[in-house]
Specification:
The protein is of the alpha+beta class. The chain has 1 helix and 3 strands, in the order E-H-E-E.
């Protein structure tokens, strides 16, 4: 996600919310979430007042019988 602001605080907050949502994914009909593991959460300043946040989560799912 990208954000324009004085500091990266808003981008950090949005990244934290995105990661929390990914880690609490519910199962989908016929599938179940086996693991959800956070891999990376990075904040990068692209230029003055421009921020990018990257959230990587590995989600493993299995088909239910």
């Amino acid at each position: 996600m990208r954000d324009a602001g004085e500091s990266g605080a808003r981008a950090v907050a949005l990244a934290a919310e995105a990661q929390a949502a990914l880690l609490s994914l519910p199962g989908v009909a016929g599938w179940r979430v086996v693991t959800a593991v956070p891999l990376r959460n990075v904040l990068v300043s692209e230029s003055a007042g421009r921020w990018s946040a990257l959230v990587d989560v590995r989600v493993r799912i299995m088909a239910e019988d």
